[in-house]
Design goal:
Blueprint lengths: L1 E6 L3 H12 L4 E7 L2 H11 L3 E5 L7 H11 L3 E6 L4 H9 L4 E4 L4 H12 L4 E2 L1 H9 L7 H9 L6 H8 L3 H15 L4 H10 L4
Parallel strand pairs: 1-2, 1-3, 3-4, 4-5, 5-6
Helix pairs in contact: 2-3, 4-6, 7-9, 8-9
Pfam families: GerE, Response_reg
Protein name: Response regulator transcription factor
Keywords: DNA-binding, Phosphoprotein
Amino acid sequence: MIRVLVADDEAMIRSALAALLRLEPDIEVVAECADGDAAVAAALRLSPDVCLLDLEMPGLDGVEVAARVTRVVATRCIVVTRHARPGVLRRALASGVSGFLPKSRGADEVAEVIRRVAAGGRYVDPEVAADALSDERCPLTDRELDVLRAGRRGETTGQIARTLSLAPGTVRNHVSAVLSKLAVSTRQQAVLLAEERGWI
């Protein structure tokens, strides 16, 4: 039997998916978790063969759960998401996730991916992989990315300037260039976009 942990903060989706997986002759659902912290605790306690993790959960997201759990337990992780952005896929693969698929897939397809991953394989949804491969290259310079990284938690222009040993006016010029290139109106929007696309 393949022992599976299911984590999703939407109760209806979590219970429906768990119920459908329980109909499979070779899959046993050993835990249902409503958030990332509960998923980590249950995975450490139960050592499931596969963790099926929703990407967007309160507290720790599915990728963060996978990163923490796979460091300690010999389990394999699959991330499911409603919004399969290329940057998220890159972050998931870098965190040791073995499977990545959108929530639009049926329970029978999810069961097949669970079997493949449990057997040591990997699976990335073809549409997500194609989007990741065709994703536009980052238009920002290394220094512009440095400015975004240094200010990703809302640091002031002065704080960013001190962190990067730049003049405040130079930081403002970089921020202005970033906003223009990304066609956004605030630095926070630029940070979110860069994180989404896996640039920072």
